[in-house]
């Protein structure tokens, strides 16, 4: 399976990327970054460091994308969750590779054209780069096999407001363009990610029993997750564990059987003091005009964790 990852690494983005790289049936063909957990530039630097850790830095191109959401709003970086550098303040060895010198829309379009009909687009951050590419290249969407996005919440609470999840709330206008695009799209939101919990001990166990070549990667994940789990604790959720947001989206991309989905016409609310960024799902018999999106509503969390770690054993 060929996957292009649009992300904002990001502690949980790192785990999603390393999981994809560790799967023998996945070929990551490109990584683009947008502002979110850190700047797009820092995110690309992190992506290159993560690729180096997996010995893939010379094989996968990384492109710096949007540094601002479509509406130009200031970005408030969630340092208490991802650390100042986005990877839990862990010092990961730098790569000698540089990001490609390309506009992100051209980059995504080129990858989609080279892998027409077989490319799975996995988005783990704000959807700014994707929305811009859809606008610039009207035939972009038709080249993509399916889109799997970490973002949103249907029935669960939000994580940046009572009803809004961070990736959608960070650029609602972009997300609304993406859900209005006629393609096969699945949203992996807080309804399922908050039910999929990674414990500190899971990583300790994995570091002990993973195959030799993955040891350093799991060690890095353990280190950066210390910060991330403190962040989860500050959000009054949990102790020495955390929800799996981005990794779950990546797992759904490779094995959709871990979730049950509900398909309905979807829009993103782009206004309002409390609801800006809310995912609006029309469950009525005669819904508003619009495109259908699959929303993950139930998850087999045990199977998710087994699938996640199986890639490293
Ligand atoms: C999402 O927001 C980011 O902080 C995470 O990396 C994840 O993509 C969770 O709401
Ligand atoms: Ca992310």
Automatic annotation (TrEMBL):
Superkingdom classification of source: Bacteria
Hydrolase among keywords: yes
Listed InterPro entries: Inosine/uridine_hydrolase_dom, IUNH, Ribo_hydro-like
Keyword Hydrolase among UniProt keywords: yes
CDD domains: nuc_hydro_CaPnhB (cd02650)
One annotated GO molecular function: purine nucleosidase activity
Domain Inosine/uridine-preferring nucleoside hydrolase: 3-305
GO terms under biological process: purine nucleoside catabolic process
A Pfam family: IU_nuc_hydro
Recorded GO CC terms: cytosol
Keywords, ordered alphabetically: Glycosidase, Hydrolase
PANTHER family: INOSINE-URIDINE PREFERRING NUCLEOSIDE HYDROLASE (PTHR12304), URIDINE NUCLEOSIDASE (PTHR12304:SF4)
Name of the protein: Nucleoside hydrolase
Organism of provenance: Mediterraneibacter faecis
């Amino acid at each position: 399976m060929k996957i292009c990852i649009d992300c904002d690494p990001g502690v949980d983005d790192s785990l999603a990327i390393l999981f994809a790289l560790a799967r023998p049936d996945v070929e990551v063909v490109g990584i683009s970054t947008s502002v979110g957990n850190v700047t797009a530039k820092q995110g690309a630097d992190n992506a290159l460091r993560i690729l180096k850790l997996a010995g893939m830095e010379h094989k996968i191109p990384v492109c710096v994308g949007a540094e601002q959401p479509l509406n130009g709003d200031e970005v408030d970086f969630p340092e208490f969750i991802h650390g100042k550098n986005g990877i839990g303040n862990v010092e990961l060895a730098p790569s000698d590779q540089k990001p490609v010198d390309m506009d992100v829309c051209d980059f995504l379009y080129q990858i989609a054209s080279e892998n027409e009909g077989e490319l799975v687009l996995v988005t783990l951050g704000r959807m700014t780069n994707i929305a811009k590419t859809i606008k610039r290249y009207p035939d972009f969407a038709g080249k993509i096999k399916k889109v799997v996005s970490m973002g949103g919440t249907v029935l669960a609470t939000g994580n940046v407001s009572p009803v809004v999840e961070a990736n959608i709330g960070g650029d609602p206008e972009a997300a609304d363009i993406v859900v209005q695009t006629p393609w096969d799209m699945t949203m992996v939101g807080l309804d399922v990610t908050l039910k999929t919990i990674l414990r500190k001990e899971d990583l300790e166990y994995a570091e002990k029993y993973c195959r030799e070549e993955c040891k350093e990667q799991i060690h890095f994940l353990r280190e950066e997750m210390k910060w991330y789990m403190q962040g989860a604790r500050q959000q009054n959720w949990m102790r020495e564990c955390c929800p799996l947001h981005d990794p779950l989206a990546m797992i759904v991309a490779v094995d959709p059987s871990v979730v049950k989905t509900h398909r309905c016409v979807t829009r993103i609310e782009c206004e309002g003091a409390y609801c800006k960024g809310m995912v609006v799902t029309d469950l009525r018999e005669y819904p508003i005009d619009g495109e259908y999106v699959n929303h993950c509503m139930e998850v087999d969390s045990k199977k998710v964790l087994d699938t996640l770690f199986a890639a490293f054993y």
